[in-house]
């Protein structure tokens, strides 16, 4: 067994797909197939049962998988230990980020990171927070920035509160007093995030807690599109404040306080794998985050 065979085996097992494994490893599908076949010949057992577009592990494959994962991890750690003698000015950082964070928060973080470590190549993959978690667990990324979540294999460090505020067009009646009740808000044309977004549940919870059924006129999966709709006077919206800096400063949108409802926010967090020695580029990234947000890593963390 060699590294390439084990890597192909683990990726096919994780994604139930030869083509997806080929995409992740940046190989052709025939190359993945050849590696799996070589592994099966060496062990004398089939590792996968193939049916249509999906594959699943055989009993032999199920037994091999945890050993293969441990061997790969040991090989990666050995390689990283050797590479640590080199300067952190070289290398790569594979980062996963939730969509809103990647658009409105990550650029400033990476500006600071790049100013300190200009030689490090940064690869960013985006998705919803649960998708970023899956990327981390399958070793497609080394660290993630997501809404705060809990998983037994992941260390979660809260960074900042993601405040959600109400905004309206400056000509909207709410903009004159800069305040409204939750009942008044619900009676207006409300633009919401799409139902797949965690913001949707957060905002609906606010109305539900107040016993108000909002007059929803639109659901959008884009913060930028939502802001433009509000600018055009097509409705009001509850949006994360972090995405509104330019519009509020430029007078394109007006912030409106909801007088009789609690403020809503969620924690944005750093996530990385527990009990794992992190690459020097990851350590450097964590140091940058610490300098910005001032958090302390959990006791006993191996990320330092």
Q: Can you tell me the CATH topology of the largest domain? A: D-Maltodextrin-Binding Protein, domain 2
Task: Give the N-to-C terminal Cα separation.
Answer: 33 Å
Q: What is the number of helical segments per DSSP (H or I, 4+ residues)?
A: 13
Gyration radius over CA: 24 Å
As a percent range, the share of strand residues is: 15-25%
| CATH A-level architecture of the largest domain | 3-Layer(aba) Sandwich
CATH superfamily of the largest domain: Periplasmic binding protein-like II
CATH class wording of the largest domain: Alpha Beta
Approximate shape: elongated
Main β-sheet: number of strands, strand sense, barrel status?
10 strands, mixed
Mean pLDDT: 91
Helical amount: 40-55%
Question: How many separate domains make up the residues?
Answer: 3
- Could you name the ranges where pLDDT drops below 50 across 5 or more consecutive residues? none
Coarse structural class: alpha/beta
Give helix and strand order, one letter per element, not per position: HHHEEHEHHEHEEHEHEHEHEHEEH
The count of β-strands is 12
